[in-house]
Amino acid sequence: MATKKEVIEALSQCKDPELDADIVNLGLIYGIAINGSGEVKVTLTMTSAMCPVTSLILADAQLRLESIPNIGKVELELVWDPMWSPDMMSDEIKYRT
């Protein structure tokens, strides 16, 4: 069964091509739930409801998660509440030059 650490590692490889930063460090991941059957639900958002690369990011995340050995069904839930803000980014991203 997949672990939360494996899910985070997979999602860390998924980048927003406009910002050249991964979706974990951008603060786009709001929650990860893994049930007893190994099914994974990831709650996430985008930097904007008008994000032109939403479908690319979601497809990339889905493929990366499905490549985790012994993972069950993968569900991505896109939410807009709370709205994303730059304060949600990791310090690594906020202060990079």
Can I get a quick summary?
The protein has 97 residues and is of the alpha+beta class. 26% of the residues lie in helices and 21% in strands.
Task: Write a structural description.
It is a single chain. The chain is an alpha+beta fold and 97 residues long. Helices cover 26% and strands 21% of the residues. The strands form two sheets. It has a three-stranded mixed β-sheet, with helices on one face. The longest helix is centred in the middle third of the chain and has 13 residues, at 54-66. The model has no long low-confidence stretch (mean pLDDT 95).
Short descriptors:
97 residues; alpha+beta; GMP Synthetase, Chain A, domain 3; three-stranded mixed beta sheet; two-stranded antiparallel sheet; 3 helices; 5 strands; 26% helix; 21% strand
Q: What is the makeup of the main sheet?
A: 3 strands, mixed
In sequence order, what are the helices and strands, one letter per element? HEEEEHEH
Give the number of helices. 3
Let me know the number of strands. 5
Classified by CATH, the class is: Alpha Beta
Looking at CATH, the homologous superfamily is Fe-S cluster assembly (FSCA)
User: Roughly how much helix do the residues carry, as a percent range?
Assistant: 25-40%
| Separation, N- and C-terminal Cα atoms | 38 Å
Q: Which descriptor suits the 3D outline?
A: globular
Note poorly predicted spans.
none
CATH structural fold name: GMP Synthetase, Chain A, domain 3
CATH-derived architecture: 2-Layer Sandwich
Assign the structural class, choosing from mainly alpha, mainly beta, alpha/beta, alpha+beta, or little secondary structure.
Answer: alpha+beta
